[in-house]
Structures are given as C-alpha cells and as structure tokens.
Amino acid sequence: MKLTLSISKKECDLIHEQSLKLLETMGITVFSKEALEIFRKAGARVDGKQVFIKAALVEENLKLVPHAFPIYSSSKRVIIGKGELCTLPPYGGTYVSRNEQITLGTRNDYLNFTKLNQQNKYLKMACPYTVEPFDIPPEHRDAYRMAMVLKYSDKPSLSIVGSREDARKCIEMVKRYYGLHHQPVVLGNVNISAPMIMGYSTTEVITVHCEENQPLMIACGSGLSGLTAPPTPGGNFLLANAEILAGIVFAQVQRPGLPIIYALPLFGVDPFKAETTVGSPTTALFTLAAKGMAEYYKIPFRSGGTFTDAKYLDYQSGFESGINLLSCLLAEVDCLMHSFGMEDALKTINYNKYILDEYMYLSLKDFVKGMEINDVTTMMDEIQKTGSRGNYISSRNLKLIRKQYPSRGFGQGKTKAEVLKDTDDEINRRLNSYEFPAPTKEQIEILRGYLPDEYID
After folding, report:
1. Distance in angstroms (rounded) separating the CA atoms of residues 176 and 447
2. Which of 93, 92, 102, 94 is nearest to 311 (CA)?
3. Which of 89, 198, 254, 267 is the 20 to 30 A CA-CA neighbour of 355?
4. CB neighbour list of residue 325: distance below 8 Å, 6 or more residues apart
5. What is the spatial distance between Cα 303 and Cα 286, in angstroms, rounded to a whole number?
C-alpha cells in the first residue's frame, strides 16, 4: 500500500476475506471449556480446543456492534464513536521516571497520576492501570487501583481485567459507588493472543462484561513479526484482524449489541534483536491500516498514542512519539490510548514527558485542523487599507495573531536541565492545586467492603 490516511476498499476486502478464511479453516485455539461450549452453541465447529467459525457467523455478529455508545460516571458521560475523540490516560507502566531518575512504580506515583489524569482537561477517561503500585500487596492491588480511581476521579474509567473474579468485583464496585446499575460504567480492555489464541482470563473477562452489559475494547495480541506473527507487516495485520473478529464474535453471541471497540495496537520489530519496537514508523502505518478496517466494519476503533522506545527525553523520544501521535490524529481514532507520558516501549511513565506530550498533542491537533482560507481569513480589505508602506500593529491584530498562531511550545530555547525543571514545576503545581470532593460516608463504606482501611488513601 502507498502511504495514505487509510487503506483502500480493495485492501480491506482482501484482509476481510482472508480473515474469514483463517477463522473457518485454521480456527482459533480456546482453552476454556465454558468458552468452547459458548462457541459450539452459537454454531461454530469445535474440535478439541480448536474453534472454527464460519463466515456467516462472523458477518451476522459484526452487524450487531453499535456505531457509537456512551460510558457514564456519577457526573460525566463520554461518547465513543460519532467522530468524537476519547482520549485515554497512560496504561501499563511498570516504572516511573522523573527528572531522569527511574524507579519502580509506587502507591504515591499511582495516586499522583490518578490526580493528574483527573485534572487534565484533555483526557476524557480515568484508568486503573496507569502505573503499577508495587508497595501495595498483590492480593489487594486490583481493588486498590479501582477504589482510588473512584475516590480521586469522576471520569468514566477502564475496568480491571485480570480475571473473572477481579472483573466482576470491579464492575460491582463501580456500579455501587456511582449508584448506577443499568448503564455502561466501565470499559474493558482485552487481548486475543497471537497467533490466534484466546486464553482463559480473556474469555472469562469478556463473559463477565457481557453478563454485566459493559463495553469492551477487543485487541489483537500485538504479534511479533517472525516469532508469533508472519514476518511481513501485511501478514501481521491479517492475523491481528482475524483475532479481533474472533473476539467480537465471542462477545456478540453472548450479548448481542454489546458495544465493542476495534483495538489494533500493532508494533514494528527489530530484525536483529527480535524485539518489539513500538516507536517504529510501522506502528504508525498499522494505525492507518486499522482506520480502514474499522470504517469497513462501521465500528469505533482505538489505537496508540505517544509511543517511543527511547528511555530518556531525547531526539528519538520526541520524533517517535510525534509520528505515532500524528498517525492517530490523522486516522481520526475514536479512542486514543497512552495519550501522554509513555516511554521505553510502554514500560515507563515519565512525569516530565507527560507535560511535554500534552503540548505536542495540542500542536498536532492544530496542525491536523489545517489552514482556513476564505474571503474573511485572507483579509483582502485590511491589506488594501494598509497599503504597501503601512504595518499591521494594533491591539485588534495582536489578538488575532494570538488566536491564529497559538504557542504550544514548552521550554523554547532552554537547556534540557531547564526543561526538566519547568515540567517538574508544572507537575508540582498541578498536584498542589488538586481539589476533589470527599467521598460520602456511604461511598467509603462501599470501598471498605473491598479493601482494608490501611489501603484506602
């Protein structure tokens, strides 16, 4: 394919037809007996752990997926689809970086980023997986994550998806805390593993979200070309599409009409190290290809964000984050994941980069809007009035300049040390100015039902 903002109808037809063939002839491996029986009752052929899905079953279930849907919190509503961009926080950080000091994530870091995400007017949702709080015991960690999102944010949130029990407790906690029992209140993020494997926890979490009528992002397993996926980007993309279709069918046969997001986070590969390269230009190309398939299926889609393999703030970090973020905006993604702050192949969330990425996001949004040229904006009358020897110095023109040429830079002309200090100061300013209504006694009691008092910060 040539570089365009999407792939062609012909290319979409090919990917779709070959995906259907894979699902019908090769099938997908499913380990859960419960899931195998669900597929069998829906009309799929089951042979041991292998599920073969006929084209007609895929086609009829694709038609059931809504084009757009809402998610609620106690005071907010987010629409996904209809051309509205839903920006999501960082997801999955193991380490944190601040002023080039890298450490494992802590409870304090988790609270900091939960508050920063709440305050950030450019983020639409909250996230319980922003960074791992390693000083919370594993047996309480998932409940802690969700409880702190509820206590310190009023934005709709992603859900906990570690297991059936965790997913159910999470959804129950959110519904009770908000007092909303019949609306979609969380968004699940699940992966179908490459090559064509639907694991136990994946099927369990999908089933729980179906039972609770909560929407899902169904993603491919980010197959690594040459290891768990074919060596060409096209082959990797085909495999990923087939995986997502299998997940959509599994959800729709359980809950027809369940809102689903087509989620395709695919990455490049280092052919000499056999490692994923999330900052590769190929990652951006996968995003543009995903736009084509999501439009082909007429369902919302999600892709990356500020992806980079860089471990520090440098030229590589800015370039890779920029090209991947730009591809998402050009593709008009419905959900932008990992919006700000991720580095080192999604292992680390960087406080300083969180601020810089926000400014990059605003700059690229300005760029994507393009330039408006019409009878008003050309200012022909103003040019004639001023003449060849005049000037345009006036308070009115100064206001117009500031509106038409917004300053989105941060640390222009400054040293790296000064940029780190300025972004760190901005982080401190936001954390110090954080304000949020205290939970009610009833809400605190709800949290106590899931978490010991010592972990209710």
Report:
1. 10
2. 102
3. 267
4. 304, 305, 306, 357, 360, 361, 364
5. 9
DSSP, collapsed to helix, strand or coil, labels residue 418 as: helix
Contacts of residue 29, Cβ cutoff 8 Å, sequence gap at least 6: 49, 50, 51, 196, 197, 198
User: Which two tokens mark 153?
Assistant: 């944010």
Distance CA 375, CA 372 (A): 10
Q: Cβ–Cβ contacts within 10 Å for residue 45, how many?
A: 14
| CA torsion through residues 28, 33, 35, 41, sign | positive
Look at residues 292, 286, 316 and name the one whose alpha carbon lies nearest to residue 304: 286
Helix (H) or strand (E) holding 143: helix 138-152
CA distance 447 to 173: 8
Task: Identify the residue whose tokens are 């419960």.
Answer: 34
The rounded distance, in Å, linking the Cα atoms of 289 and 12 is 9
Q: Which residues contact 326 (CB under 8 A, 6 or more apart)?
A: 284, 364, 367, 368
What SS3 state is found at 140? helix
8 vs 194: CA distance, rounded Å = 25
**β-pair type (275-277, 157-158):** unpaired
Candidates 85, 46, 44, 18; CA nearest to 252 is 44
Cα–Cα distance measured from residue 46 to residue 305, given in angstroms and rounded to the nearest whole number: 38
Judge whether 131 and 96 are in contact, CB under 8 Å. yes
DSSP state at residue 124: -
**pLDDT digit of tens for each residue in the chain (457 aa)?**
445 678 999 999 999 999 999 999 999 999 999 999 999 999 999 999 999 999 999 999 999 999 999 999 999 999 999 888 999 999 999 999 999 999 999 999 999 999 999 999 999 999 999 999 999 999 999 999 999 999 999 999 999 999 999 999 999 999 999 999 999 999 999 999 999 999 999 999 999 999 999 999 999 877 778 788 888 999 999 999 999 999 999 999 999 999 999 999 889 888 888 788 999 999 999 999 999 999 999 999 999 899 999 999 999 999 999 999 999 999 999 999 999 999 999 999 999 999 999 999 999 999 998 888 999 889 999 899 999 998 988 868 788 888 888 777 665 668 889 999 999 999 999 999 999 999 999 999 999 999 999 999 8
Tokens of 299: 């369902």
Q: What is the C-alpha to C-alpha distance for residues 287 and 285, in angstroms, rounded to an integer?
A: 5
Before 195, cis peptide (omega within 30)?
yes
Stated pTM of the model: 0.94
d(CA 446, CA 365) in angstroms, rounded, equals 40
Q: How far apart are CA 434 and CA 427, in angstroms?
A: 11
